[in-house]
Amino acid sequence: MENKNFISVFFSEFKSKWFIIVVLAVILGGGLMFEKRNSSGDVIYVSTSSYAQILAKVELNDSVKANGFHEMDDSGFFANALILKYSFMKETEKTFDYSKFNANFPLLNDENKIKWIDKRLWVASYYPDLFVFSFGVLDEDAKDVEYTNANVEKYILDYFNFCNERLQKSGMGHLEIIEKGLMPSQGTLIPGKSFVLKYGAIGAALGFAIGVLIIAGLSMKKMKKEN
């Protein structure tokens, strides 16, 4: 009986408040379509990340070993220092077209450029004296896939040489390359209109579901008042 009462109250509320569902469906559907729209209206280009890596070994000078320093790990290596990565980025802005790695790069201020490079360029040690230098242009970057795939290896090699030069100047030792690796980006075209309509339909369905829940809540509230 209680279920029947709720159903009758729900449909009564639905008849008088159906516009809530319509408004929410239009707002959420239209909002998602607007967010996912493509400026050209024809296609949307989606690409995966592109990574280049160098596995390197630190060869310490004999004079350093004589002082009891026999191996180097993350704590003793400077290559992952943010200031060094930022210095390299500034030094190579004329060598590499960063707008090809991310179309929005020229719009970033210095603070956001630092965050951008710190997330994509890193060095890590998985064993004493062994370091992996990595540079990745991520799937979230609005990249030129052809340019990116052609330059990520050169980019990480230039950073490797940049760090090696400073290690040698410090008198500590030098870096030797053991292995290189590349995972190129893959790009694909998605029809823009169908992509946008798909998200519009998802938004409308979500709006419909939320509207139904709101009306159900109002129905239960009304039943409590009547009881």
Structural overview:
It contains 7 helices and 6 strands; from the N terminus they run αββααααββαββα. The protein has 227 residues and is of the alpha+beta class. It has 2 domains: 71 residues; 137 residues. Strands 3-4-2-5 form a 4-stranded antiparallel beta sheet. Strand 3 and strand 4 form a beta hairpin. The longest helix is centred in the N-terminal third of the chain and has 35 residues. The two termini are 14 Å apart.
Keywords:
6 strands; 2 domains; four-stranded antiparallel beta sheet; single chain; two-stranded antiparallel sheet; 7 helices; alpha+beta; 227 residues; elongated
TL;DR?
With 227 residues, the protein is of the alpha+beta class. The protein has seven helices and six strands.
List the helices and strands and how they pair.
Elements: H1 2-36, E1 43-47, E2 50-60, H2 62-66, H3 82-91, H4 98-101, H5 110-120, E3 121-127, E4 130-137, H6 145-169, E5 173-183, E6 187-191, H7 192-226
Helix pairs in contact: 1-7, 3-5
